[in-house]
Design brief:
about 150 residues, cytoplasm, globular, Aminopeptidase, alpha+beta
């Protein structure tokens, strides 16, 4: 079995990450947004999960003082359901703790029950609703969080 590597994202990864972004979100981030996150945002840290040089997924994290927030997480569609998302999320949780975060939060589509169930396995609980959060279809977001 090929080795899975989870590591910090670099600007050289953006082209592969954009492919994941385009196949995962109705309103994908642009290359420029990722570039600015990696080079200009002092609170941001992004991670990729790769196998044999192919990036299978990525996750963005902001850590401000002692609060961590997942900005986005996605796995290439053909690799979903194979526990790569779970491995990546566990890694990012561990990194959040190592960076001094005491809580972690994220937003997830109300309709994305698969993701919600995964987050619950890590102890995240619902904390509220952000009405009309997603700009592509005005779907509400469920805010979930966990004390680390």
């Amino acid at each position: 079995m090929a080795t899975i590597i989870i590591r910090q994202m670099t600007v050289q990864d953006i082209d592969q990450v954009i492919e994941i972004e385009m196949s995962s979100f109705g309103v994908p981030w642009t290359k420029d947004v990722f570039y600015k996150e990696l080079t200009e945002n002092p609170y941001a840290i992004y991670f990729v999960i790769e196998k044999q040089g192919t990036i299978l997924g990525y996750c963005g994290l902001w850590v401000v003082i002692d609060e961590a927030s997942i900005t986005n997480i996605a796995i290439l569609p053909k690799y979903r359901g194979k526990k790569y998302g779970r491995a990546l999320f566990q890694y990012v949780l561990n990194q959040s703790i190592a960076l001094g975060a005491q809580t972690l939060s994220l937003e997830v589509r109300i309709s994305n029950i698969v993701a919600q169930n995964m987050y619950r396995r890590f102890g995240l609980i619902p904390g509220g609703i952000r009405k009309n959060y997603y700009t592509d279809d005005n779907e509400d977001a469920l805010v979930m969080w966990v004390k680390l």
